[in-house]
Write a structure and sequence with these properties.
This protein has about 250 residues and is an alpha/beta fold. It has helices at about 25-40, 65-80, 100-115, 135-155, 160-165, 195-200, 205-210, 215-230, and strands spanning about 1-5, 15-20, 45-50, 85-90, 120, 175-180, 185-190, 235-245. The chain has a single domain (about 1-245), classed as LmbE-like (Rossmann fold, 3-Layer(aba) Sandwich), CATH 3.40.50.10320. This is LmbE family N-acetylglucosaminyl deacetylase.
């Protein structure tokens, strides 16, 4: 069940969705239940992770290179919980991402490769009500990804080397979903997929293993989203800001 206050593309119209996130686990905290619903409906979902998450974790005995490798493994395991197998990596340093022309080009490249109907990304706006989604890497990736959607990926004269050297034709993304921002205009009921979201986050053991009541924490966030969406008590929802980019 989906509660919405705007026109959103029907999932039946979609063939592919690209998820662009800053770190391993970002998609699972923000949208794992929603992604599971997409793959259940036969939509191909591709992940693009901008960093390896090498600055994460709590174990001083693990080198940063080892942490990066571990987090790639954890993201692969988490993705399987929600039906995703195609994960691509840019390998930028965790904690030092900036919305550069180079990052815009790299994301536009993957958009032209995948040719998605919808792109999910972090919000480029700071959320003052909940500061954690507003990590500077998240905001930088959201800004670069939104610019890659419009105008870069659809403009054949933007980054002309993508066409001239790589044969990547321009592509127009029809819709963007922003996660973790200060406003939401679309809610997805994930109550029936909550366990899969929990399992996906538990796969990120280096980041969530210390959380004594991960399901309880998630239920608090998701229940608040469901209430904002006007869903019945006991339901759980993920929140997004949907933007028409057709």
């Amino acid at each position: 069940m989906v509660e919405t206050v705007i026109n959103v593309l029907d999932d039946g119209e979609l063939r592919r969705i690209l998820v662009v996130m800053a770190h391993p686990d970002d998609v699972d905290f923000g949208a794992a239940g929603t992604v599971a619903g997409w793959t259940d409906r036969g939509i191909e979902v591709v992940y693009l992770m901008v960093t390896d998450g090498d600055a994460g974790g709590f174990d001083d005995t693990i080198t940063r290179r080892e942490m990066a490798a571990l987090r790639r493994e954890e993201q692969a395991a988490a993705a399987k919980c929600v039906g995703v197998t195609d994960i691509r990596w840019l390998g930028l340093p965790d904690g030092r991402v900036e919305a550069t022309l180079g990052l815009r080009r790299d994301i536009a490249r993957v958009i032209r490769q995948v040719r998605p109907d919808r792109v999910l990304m972090p919000s480029p706006e700071r959320n003052y009500e909940r500061i954690y989604p507003s990590h500077p890497d998240h905001r930088a990736v959201g800004s670069a990804a939104l610019d890659a959607v419009y105008p870069d990926a659809r403009n054949p004269y933007a980054f002309p080397e993508l066409l001239a050297d790589e044969g990547l034709e321009a592509w127009t993304v029809r819709e963007v979903w922003l996660s973790g921002g200060p406003t939401a205009n679309h809610y997805v009921d994930i109550t029936d997929r909550f366990d899969r979201k929990v399992n996906a986050l538990r796969a990120h053991a280096s980041q969530t293993g210390h959380m004594e009541d991960l399901p309880g924490m998630l239920r608090g966030w998701l229940s608040a989203n469901a209430k904002a969406a006007g869903l019945p008590e006991g339901r759980l929802a993920e929140a997004f800001h949907v933007v028409d980019t057709a």
